[in-house]
């Protein structure tokens, strides 16, 4: 897999940038920013993604690690949706731990 990423540097950079933006939006974004600040934030992420690209190009598993982070975030989101759908088991009126 590393050799494929090494052979496709532009695609590798785009994948790293996309994963970085997704992780930022899913974890760190609190609300909307003014457009100029939004542009600055994305430019800084593009610069940071270039640093991660250099590390990936130097045979470190950056994309694989970021993919694991995204997978764990998806599992958390799935669990949250499951708990919301099930209602946390408190719809029947019984509260085993309450007073």
Write a structural description.
There is one protein chain. This protein is mainly alpha-helical and 99 residues long. It has one domain. It has helices at residues 2-7, 9-28, 35-57, 62-86. Helix 2 crosses helix 3 (35-57) and helix 2 (9-28) packs parallel to helix 4. The radius of gyration is 19 Å and the shape is flat.
What general form does the structure show?
flat
Figure out the total of helices. 4
Distance between the termini: 56 Å
Q: Average pLDDT value?
A: 89
**Helical content band:** over 70%
- Which consecutive residue ranges, at least 5 long each, have pLDDT under 50? none
Order of helices and strands: HHHH
Characterize the largest beta sheet: strand count, sense, and whether it forms a barrel: none
What is the beta-strand fraction? under 5%
Q: What's the gyration radius in Å?
A: 19 Å
Number of beta-strand segments = 0
What structural class is derived from the secondary structure elements? mainly alpha
Number of domains: 1
Pfam families: YlaH
InterPro entries: YlaH
Keywords: Membrane, Transmembrane, Transmembrane helix
Protein name: YlaH-like protein
